[in-house]
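Hi there. Long-time user, first ticket. I'm pasting a complex I've been working with (about 481 residues overall). I'd like to know whether the download I got is complete or cut off, because the file seemed smaller than I expected. Thanks.
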Amino acid sequence: MALSRDGSPGWSASTAGSTLRLAGYLLLAGALMMLDRHNAWLPRLRSSGDMIVQPMWRLAGAPAQWVEDARVRLTRQAALRNENAKLRDALLLANVRIARMRALVRQNDQLKRLLDAAEMLRMQGQLARVIDIDLDPNHGRIVINRGARQGVRVGQPVVDSHGVMGQVMEVLPDTAVVLLITDPSGALPVTDARSGVRALAYGSGHGERLDLPNLPINADVRVGDELLSSGLGGRFPSGFPVAQVTALAPDRSDSYLRAEARPLAHLDRSDHVLLLRDLAEPVGPPAPATRAGPPGALVRPAAAASAQVPSSKPGGAP
Amino acid sequence: MIRADWQRWICYLSLGSAVFLLLLPMPPALLPLRPWWPALVLLYWILEAPQYIGLGTAFVTGVSADVLAGALLGDQALRLVVIAFLAQRFRARLRFFPMPQQAATVLLLLLNDCLLRWLIRAFAGMAPPLALAWISPMVGALVWPFVFLVLDGLRARVRAREP
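Hi, the file is complete. Here it is re-exported in full:
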């Protein structure tokens, strides 16, 4: 500012004085340029001067902001509607994609948990896919996409990530039929996880229920108890979750407790199942022989003998 | 006295806004065509009210423009001083030129300034200005009559308001 005050009266001075002043200012400007170009302290001074410059810049930028705001406000409604429609389409597409991803994630989770279960029990497992759910209330069975060619054998237990599902009943070359634990023709030895009480769980024929009809009246079973497979019978691995007790009542004769349980396996929702190969160490007695009782050769004579009972009895009794 | 003060403030204010005008954002394509506002405003005041303004004012204006633009410090200051000096030198004649002739002189001054700018950049070792920058003086000459009229009107209004 001092300079400008200095400069103002100079106008009336002689031409020589004016030229001199010009030379002075030119020198000053040149010196400034040199310093700015080759020295370090002037830029530093300038960067501190930014405190003043910064608000000026913001002020200068404000009109552009206003113009932009006005433009946004004045955008034609048709354009907006167009854009809106386009965005909605994009959103729909994105949602579909997200849903797909979510399904994949869920599937992945399920598979991982299945594998974890197999790992935990130190078992060989084979993943299979449910082909067709045949949840006829009287025949709880499903079909899986693994069969004899993949090494599936009758009797293999089938589990999903939540619990025991059933066991292979019939093997075809590329598929297998699994009898679910809810099938009325099946029974499964279980133990109460809390108290250790053993019981047999029968299929009820309803998709979501198991019956435990013959519990001792004083058995320590409560609603909410988890039932694990006991391993008795040797078919199923022991300690695998099977069902949860949902109802408990004495039966009509008051001599037994009758319990109902809900299978933990997602019998109607599981997509992937695990076929357990072999028990690492068979627990409990070996599987019952397919033919119980005396060999066929002996049966007939015995039957014949029983038929002859009336005639032989008088002779044998004394 | 008061009147003189008012005019002085109008003078400085217009110079300040001319510097500020340089900062206003513009489409990048039009940027080289932007007239050099401080020079035009400075020219007007040197022609019409030389008692308020001299080489010092030109220098200070130039330095503040440099600081605001973050450009080479002293660049605009030097060029404004040169323009102010030339305008002061030929003020007596310039004042009574008809408008087209005045605009032509402004064009010459600004072209000279462009040359100077080119020289300064060459000396400072910076890239030479764009070729398009040579159009800026013509734009400056074209808007000169409007700058002149606007500032004249402003000054007249201030003068009329004061007793």
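A couple of notes from our side: The helical segments of chain B are 2-21, 37-48, 55-69, 75-89, 91-94, 99-124, 136-161. Residues 79 and 116 of chain B are 7 Å apart (CA to CA).
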